[in-house]
Design goal:
The structure holds 2 protein chains of 2 kinds. Chain A is mostly helical. Helices cover 74% and strands 0% of the residues of chain A. Chain A has helices at residues 8-17, 23-36, 40-58, 60-84, 93-102, 104-112, 120-144. The longest helix of chain A is centred in the middle third of the chain and has 25 residues, at 60-84. By secondary structure, chain B is of the alpha+beta class. A two-stranded antiparallel sheet of chain B has the order 1-2. In chain B, a hairpin with a 5-residue loop joins strand 1 (48-56) and strand 2 (62-69). The chains are: A mainly alpha, B alpha+beta. At the A-B interface, helix 2 and helix 3 of A face helix 2, helix 3, strand 1 and strand 2 of B.
Chain lengths: 152, 99
């Protein structure tokens, strides 16, 4: 029997980010159905539905949203600080480093593309997305190290 | 719907046939994850029990998880059917009759 392997990336995403206690059974079912109907679009669709469903049901979506809000606020606060900072005085290097570290996208732009004209709005959005991504990774790690639920 | 699919499938009720049964009768594509989410809730309420089968190569070496309706689940299905029948009786318009 010829075995059709479903998209590897989708399977990897499911393995890592699906925190469902039956995720192995779900992967097996998806694999089995893929053998009967090898359709990558269907497989990706099922993967994304499962990830979104897991995020919603575990409440992780709200925690990730909190991370995004934190990233947004950090950027806004730095924006306010740099707007109202005394232009005559040089900004202390510690403050500058802290600002770049807490806004990784701004840090990368400053380090590698210093001439790129990027506005505060772009930095604020990029920082919110970066923090959300970080929150997503934290959630993935947290869920994987959580004690398994015992089946009844 | 999930409980009815379990009754129809009997001992061969696991993710794939359950989702196919629902798809066949509803005419809609079903997400396997959603089926498992529903089964998990039903299991928490004691309507469904589960057991894990042996891993098979046609599933990439992964085991099947079989589900079975419990006595409590069967009672709920019967009660729901009776409730729905009573509600339908009060809706002659939807049954093709005159209001």
């Amino acid at each position: 029997m010829k075995v059709s392997e479903p998209p590897r990336l989708a399977t990897w995403i499911l393995r890592v980010f699906s925190w469902h206690p039956d995720s192995e059974a779900i992967l097996g079912d998806l694999w089995e159905r893929y053998q009967a109907r090898p359709n990558s679009v269907w497989y990706w669709r099922q993967t994304l539905i499962e990830i979104v469903d897991t995020l919603m049901r575990s409440g992780a979506i709200f925690r990730i949203a909190m991370w995004a809000i934190a990233g947004f606020l950090v950027s806004v606060c730095w924006g306010v600080y740099f707007t109202y900072a005394d232009k005559a005085e040089p900004i202390p290097s510690l403050v500058y480093t802290l600002a770049l570290l807490s806004q990784p996208v701004a840090g990368v732009i400053t380090a590698f593309f210093p001439d790129l004209p990027v506005g505060l709005r772009v930095i604020v959005v990029a920082n919110a997305v970066t923090y959300a991504l970080f929150g997503f990774i934290v959630e993935a790690v947290r869920q994987h190290y959580r004690p398994l639920r015992v089946s009844r | 719907m999930v409980l009815l699919a379990l009754i129809r499938l009997g001992d061969d009720a696991y993710g794939v046939p359950i989702s196919q049964e629902i798809e066949e009768h509803s005419g809609h594509d079903v997400a396997l994850g959603s089926v498992y989410a529903a089964l998990e809730r039903l299991q928490d309420r004691g309507f469904v029990s589960s057991s894990v089968g042996e891993p098979t190569p046609e599933r990439g070496g992964r085991a099947k998880k079989y589900f079975k309706i419990t006595g409590k689940g069967m009672k709920v299905v019967q009660e729901t059917q009776q409730t729905l029948t009573r509600l339908w009786k009060g809706l002659p318009k939807l049954q093709g009759g005159k209001a």
